[in-house]
Design goal:
The chain is mainly alpha-helical and 221 residues long. It has helices at 5-13, 16-23, 55-58, 95-102, 104-118, 128-145, 150-169, 180-197, 203-220, and strands at residues 73-74, 80-81.
Length: 221
């Protein structure tokens, strides 16, 4: 999916801030990573009946009752097995979570775009090494600003996959003016693929698709 030559010429003449937005489709991205509410477990306080201690020992006994610990079960072969309940099932991701994670590739492009504009850099004037460093810094900033939810972790994995694609396609020693068209085309396809992967309804599907996409690009070089 290459950009038409007329668009490509215009693309290379634009400042860095415009280039990503021309090459990449508009994908709705949640501006702030959605936070998954942690489930709250309500544990009732059981009343414990304690016999009154003898006056001689009252001063030495603690005022709070010690917590009651369930005795472990013992298997038939004599091995002690802890008495644990069923594993907690994570809540399914919200549509906002899926948009945030599947749009992480596009958001990284925007962040690199903004960083380049902030530094007065133009993609058409950069070398490959400069561009890779720009995307690495944009990724570092987004990762540092992320929270600790499952969606945040998945978005980090997607950004890591995008950086793998950039490193595979961009040769540090060559100017970006000759490399940008191919990279922008692949970046666009990756963004679309992740959007389709989100239709499966799981964050894992998006992360797996991003990693697979990066592997295929690396194998094609």
């Amino acid at each position: 999916m290459r950009l038409p030559s007329a668009i490509l010429s215009a693309f290379l003449s634009l400042p860095a801030q415009a280039q990503f937005r021309v090459a990449l489709p508009t994908v709705p991205v949640a501006p702030v990573a959605p936070r998954l509410a942690a489930p709250t477990l309500s544990v009732p306080t059981a009343a414990v009946s304690v016999l009154p201690a003898a006056p001689r020992l009252a001063a030495t006994l603690p005022t709070a009752a010690a917590p009651v610990v369930a005795a472990p079960m013992r298997a038939a072969n004599g091995v002690t097995v802890p008495d644990v309940g069923p594993a907690a099932v994570p809540a399914p991701p919200t549509p906002q979570d899926l948009d945030y994670v599947s749009g992480a590739a596009f958001a990284l492009g925007q962040a690199a775009d903004d960083l380049g504009a902030e530094s007065g850099l133009r993609v058409s004037k950069m070398g490959g090494a400069d561009f890779i460093a720009l995307v690495e810094e944009a990724r570092r900033r987004l990762d540092a600003a992320a929270g600790s939810t499952r969606a945040d972790a998945a978005a980090k994995d997607v950004r890591a996959a995008v950086l793998r694609v950039v490193r595979a396609l961009v040769k540090p020693e060559l100017p970006m003016s000759t490399q940008a068209p191919r990279l922008m085309s692949v970046w666009q396809v990756m963004t679309q693929e992740l959007s389709r992967a989100a239709e499966a309804g799981t964050l894992e599907a998006v992360v797996k698709d991003a990693a697979l996409f990066a592997e295929q690009v690396e194998a094609s070089i």
